[in-house]
Design a protein that fits this description.
By secondary structure, the chain is of the alpha/beta class. It folds into two domains: about 110 residues, Lyase, Ornithine Decarboxylase, Chain A, domain 1 (Beta Barrel), CATH 2.40.37.20; about 210 residues, Alpha-Beta Barrel (TIM Barrel), CATH 3.20.20.10. It contains ten helices and 17 strands. The strands form two sheets. Strands 1, 10, 11, 12, 13, 14, 15, 16 and 17 form a nine-stranded mixed sheet that branches. The chain has an eight-stranded parallel sheet with strand order 2-9-8-7-6-5-4-3. α3 links the parallel β3 and β4. α4 packs across α5 and α6 packs across α7.
Length: about 375
């Protein structure tokens, strides 16, 4: 089947672009002291994760325990859950999962660490732990996200030493996220903000090692800062993920990986000469990072998205578009768009190669 014949809306996955992105990022990290541990939350697919590992990635990163379970069932055994895991049900699942794979989890308080220890003892498993640092927080670094995490420095050292005393829990190192860099218009501004945050991260590593604990892992970074964190002395792994599919917000920020994921949509109505209505609305493409862009059609501009429809303005007259014609939309934020779909439509060139389940879709627990 020609890709343009596929029913709409549909999440299209350009396999050639995907594989180019995987190779390009793998080539960047080849020879670097830091490893790539790609985040799977953008694509939610074990097949794509296996491709990333085959290209040289050191395991994967997940946002949620449910994602980690999906990846482990698919045979991936080196998994970081870059998030706090709390509550008896989740901690029981975490301890059970640790019997079958090398699972690492983020912790930012000793109470949570003690609960992890309790369930790991019950399951006779071992859970590896990274102390999660808040690199924004009380440091008030411009642009850096302020969410979970213990304060860098002395509080983090104290927490690491408490974790090291617990049974069936292994302190492995530190995690921090120098995220929120999209707001900076230039690479130099991004680098300056990220460098301040990474100095806190690596500086805390030094303090922990001075206290007598070994720090094996210093994990950080994302697609926006992969070539900053990947070069930073002391960083051991980078959690870049969005590069593999790419989206418009990354392109606006200056990243030039290939667009691999788009939404195929049909023209449903041409109510006026200057306007089109397509069948991809908010249930097919998200707008949390801005409006989508029509691929390879600069004269067409998405101006609004409703629940079931997209509104497109024709900026130049004379474009011949009929009801039923197909367009491809580039999501502004690919993560939340992929989460709307059960499957990808895999393409090579203009041909459909098959479908691929979005296996970790809905695994938000």
């Amino acid at each position: 089947m020609n890709a343009a014949e596929y029913d709409t809306p549909a999440l299209m996955l350009d396999m050639d672009a995907l594989e180019r992105n995987i190779k390009r990022m793998a080539d960047y990290f080849r020879g670097k002291k830091a490893n790539l541990r790609p985040h799977v939350k953008p694509h939610k697919s074990p097949l794509i994760a296996h491709k990333q590992i085959a290209a040289g990635a050191k395991g994967i990163t997940c946002a949620k325990l449910g994602e980690a379970e999906v990846m482990a069932r698919a045979g991936i055994i080196d998994i970081l859950v870059a998030n706090e895991v709390v509550g008896a049900n989740k901690l029981s699942r975490l301890a059970k999962l640790a019997r079958y794979c090398d699972i690492i989890v983020a912790v930012d308080n000793v109470k949570n660490a003690k609960q992890i220890s309790k369930f790991a003892v019950q399951e006779r498993s071992t859970v590896h732990v990274l102390v999660d640092l808040n690199l924004g927080g009380e440091t008030h670094l411009e642009g850096i996200l302020n969410r979970c995490g213990v304060t860098p420095g002395t509080p983090a050292v104290a927490l690491a030493n408490e974790i090291a005393k617990l049974k069936n829990v292994r302190f492995k190192g530190l995690m921090g996220y120098e995220g929120g860099l999209r707001q900076f218009p230039s690479f130099e501004q991004k680098k300056a903000a990220a460098t301040k945050a990474l100095n806190l991260l690596v500086g805390t590593r030094d303090l922990i090692q001075d206290s007598g604990l070994q720090v094996d892992i210093v994990s950080c970074g994302g697609t926006m800062s992969y070539n900053i964190a990947g070069e930073f002395p002391g960083v051991t792994e980078v959690q870049a993920g969005g590069y593999v599919l790419m989206d418009e917000s990354y392109r606006r920020a200056g990243l030039d990986f290939d667009i691999a994921a788009t939404v195929l949509t049909s023209v449903a109505s041409t109510p006026r000469p200057e306007k089109l209505i397509v069948d991809a609305g908010l249930k097919a493409i998200t707008t949390d990072h801005g409006l989508p862009v029509v691929k390879d059609s600069p004269r067409l501009e998405v101006i609004a998205v409703n629940s079931e429809h997209g509104h497109i303005h024709i900026n130049e007259p004379g474009i011949a578009i009929e009801i039923g014609d197909k367009l491809e939309l580039i999501p502004a934020y690919v993560d939340t768009t992929v989460a709307l779909y059960n499957e990808y439509v895999m393409t090579r060139g203009k041909e459909v190669e098959g479908t691929l389940e979005v296996a970790a879709r809905g695994k938000i627990q």
